[in-house]
Amino acid sequence: MAKQEERHIDTIDDIARELGVSKTTVSRAISGKGRLSTATRAKVLAYIEAHNYRPNAVAKSLAKSKTYNLGLVLPVELMEGETAFSQACMSGICEEASARDYDVVLSMVSDQDTVQMERLINKRKVDGLIVSRSTVASPVVDLLKAREFPFITVGYTPDLTLLTVDNENRKACQDITRQLLDRGKRRLMLLGGEENHYITQERRMGFEEAHRQAGVPLSQAQMFHEIKDIETTRQAVDAALEQGADCLVCMDDFICYLALILLRERQVSIPEDVSIVSFYDSRRLEYNTPPIASLWFDAKALGKRACQMLLAQLAGEDPQSEVLPGYEIRWRGSVR
């Protein structure tokens, strides 16, 4: 006898069609709710089990009104620049979600457009959301709070009512800045991103605190913000060099990458003419010539923890916000 061809069922429509019953009958049989004869319920459940039609995922989803999907909210600018941190964090989220029988659905948003995310919520496509970046007056966070939808933010926010998980960004940035000052650097120039991002504010405060504790004067003219592309980077690098910078301190690997392009164009030697460091490490900095001194955080572990905390919240637990300890300063040839 030929082996019966295995069929796959992804929805209750498939089950209903195979058994010749209504979708409502299948739903009631799986959930155990509603009026249904014992014989019919037994028939549906036996059929699912006998044919290996993914009974666990289907049954749990229908019985508990769960989708077994998590949404990951990403900023649209991720496609244009900074990716190393986000990719590593995303990898951790997806790996942890898969281990818990969940899938991850991506949603791209901006300060003006949250349509993708709203569609996930309105159509009940996800059980909870992980917001990958927190910003000042965030429409994403405001919407989720108003809808009372389960979510966690990755990164610092002053809103103590939110569930968050973060690295020791301010402490790490303070530490590497202090060590640069200890090495005799006195004209550090900070090249930063958008000021409405809390991560930008945290890193800047670490930079400022190190100067204050070391008793080294720091002026606003030494800090450049709103760097997001090659043109804004060019303006900052040129101004920093004109002020006699002895070290460019870049807030992330993308800004550092752009700064390196411009320094090469100007035939500025690293570290002979100016040193350069990054507040976030990546392979393109590690493999640069010379390799760039950077801060390293375990972004994958951060993503895993964010997923764990959100799932704990969905399970009815009461997880508390966390700052994950640990970072490394990776001194390399870009600092003299």
Shape descriptor: elongated
- The span between the termini is 77 Å
Strand order in the largest sheet: 2-1-3-4-5-11
**What is the overall pLDDT average?**
89
**Unreliable residue runs:** 1-5
Number of helical runs?
Answer: 13
What proportion strand? 5-15%
Major β-sheet annotation: 6 strands, parallel
Task: Say how many strands there are.
Answer: 12
Into which percent range does the helicity of residues fall? 40-55%
The succession of helices and strands, N to C, reads HHHHEHEHEHEEHEHEHEHEHEHEE
Radius of gyration, in Å, reads: 26 Å
SSE-based structural type: alpha/beta
Description of the structure:
- There is one protein chain.
- The protein is α/β, with parallel strands linked by helices and about 325 residues long.
- It has 13 helices and twelve strands.
- The protein has helices spanning about 10-20, 25-30, 40-50, 55-65, 85-100, 115-120, 140-145, 170-180, 200-215, 230-240, 255-265, 285, 300-315; strands at about 70-75, 105-110, 130, 150-155, 165, 190, 225, 245-250, 275-280, 295, 320-325, 330.
- The strands form two sheets. The protein has a six-stranded parallel β-sheet, with helices on both faces.
- α2 crosses α3, α5 (about 85-100) packs across α13 (about 300-315) and α10 packs across α11.
- It starts with 11 loop residues before the first helix and ends in a 6-residue tail after the last strand.
- The model is unreliable at about 1-5 (pLDDT under 50).
